């Protein structure tokens, strides 16, 4: 399932992630760490993921 969000919403969320975590979503290492954290969260709580768990 594909979800679309407004570009301003995406920008706001990326800025918020950067402010809260100190990670830079535009930096490859920052994005890798963010993706790993999201994957770990989905593994911990399958109901918060993509519906496959």
What does this structure look like?
It is globular and about 30 Å long. The model has no long low-confidence stretch (mean pLDDT 85). 60% of the residues lie in helices and 0% in strands. It has two helices and no strands. It has 53 residues and is mainly alpha-helical.
Radius of gyration: 12 Å
Work out the strand percent. Answer: under 5%
Structural class, by secondary structure, is mainly alpha
Give the rounded overall mean pLDDT: 85
Shape: globular
State the separation between the terminal residues, measured CA to CA.
14 Å
How many helical elements? 2
Describe the sheet with the most strands: none
What's the number of extended β-strand segments? 0
Unreliable parts = none
Element pattern in H and E: HH
Helix content: 55-70%
Sequence-ordered SSE layout with sheet pairings:
Blueprint: H1 7-21, H2 28-44
Overview features:
53 residues, mainly alpha, 2 helices
Question: How would you briefly describe this protein structure?
Answer:
With about 55 residues, the chain is mainly alpha-helical.
């Amino acid at each position: 399932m594909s979800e679309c969000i407004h570009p301003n919403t995406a920008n706001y969320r990326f800025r918020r992630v950067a402010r809260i975590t100190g990670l830079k979503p535009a930096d490859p290492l920052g994005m890798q760490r963010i993706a790993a954290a999201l994957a770990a969260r989905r593994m911990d709580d399958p109901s918060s993921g993509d519906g496959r768990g």
